[in-house]
Amino acid sequence: MNKIFKTKVNDTFDFEINTEDISKLDVVEISKSKFHILQNNKSFRATIVESDFNHKTYKVKINKNVYRVNIFNDLDLLIKEMGFAIGTSKHINSIKAPMPGLILEINITVGQEVKEDDSLLILEAMKMENVINSPRDGVIKSISVQKNDTVEKNQLLIEFE
Fold first, then answer.
1. pLDDT tens digits, residue range 87-138?
2. Do the Cβ atoms of 47 and 34 come closer than 8 Å?
3. CA atoms of 159 and 161, how far apart (whole Å)
4. Where does the UniProt annotation place the signal sequence (predicted)?
């Protein structure tokens, strides 16, 4: 069965590649991320510089040029067509205390821009320090606690804009 993949290069150029086209490529794997390709009697050196499998994005260096490539299969296209998005940020607007405890440290300020998985605060509970990380990229709207505050389970800690 011939599968079709849609690709977008540098957020500008769109291509369709199918498994038949791929099987016709003359490719020699030099190492896990380096390849030698022959296409139309031309030689190309390809290196996969970065890869993010979850977001299906790759940074590929061909000879001396670097390209950012997105690859979408049939399922990705169907999800997009249905109005859903792949890899969108989570829409969590607040963080509540997962358990009762003591706020040991607050690593952010109101108005600060944070990235997903940034450390926001440290909550001590049952003699353990629990790092509360950002669930998404965003801007801090409010901080409802201060250092050394005692909090109850489900108490509001932080709100995002």
1. 555 578 899 998 999 999 999 999 999 998 899 999 998 888 999 999 889 9
2. yes
3. 7
4. none
